[in-house]
Amino acid sequence: MTEYYIVYNGQQVGPMSKEALVNYGLNPNSQVWAQGMPAWVPAYTIPELMEVINTRPLNTPPPHPGTGFDTLSDTGTSGKSRLAAGLFAIILGTLGIQYFYCGKTAGGIICILLSLVTCGFWGIITLIQGILMIVMSQQEFEQKYVYSSSTFPIF
After folding, report:
1. Which residues contact 74 (CB under 8 A, 6 or more apart)?
2. Its pTM surpasses 0.85
3. Nearest to residue 22, comparing CAs of 8, 12, 40?
4. pLDDT by residue (tens digit) across 26-58?
5. Could you give the angle at the alpha carbon of 53 between the alpha carbons of 50 and 56, nearest 5°?
């Protein structure tokens, strides 16, 4: 029997059975991991977890309202909004605020240094980055900017 870990309120929880994941708000965008997997992935990529999600009675709302739909205001499992991060990148990108918001402190510092070295031209890159953050899905945003092991994810 496969035992899974889930990201719940920004913390890794587990191991537990696929049925127990429901108690931690399992939804298609939940980040999960199991022994032998190379990286954290959204639950919708694992067929046996989708079976658990799809067996929930139709009149039962998800345990965490707002996590079942991919809207601009949806914060997903990480609690980080791609809209907020994108606006930070567009408006205050040269200060690296979008990286600090996503928990990538080293990335924020690198961004500040690049802004100083390029005399502010780095702001063009952060403008593009902000637009891309806003147009990508919440799951893509979390995987690239929040749960990634990269210190300085750019695009």
Report:
1. 66, 67, 81, 138
2. no
3. 8
4. 888 889 999 999 999 988 888 888 888 777 554
5. 145
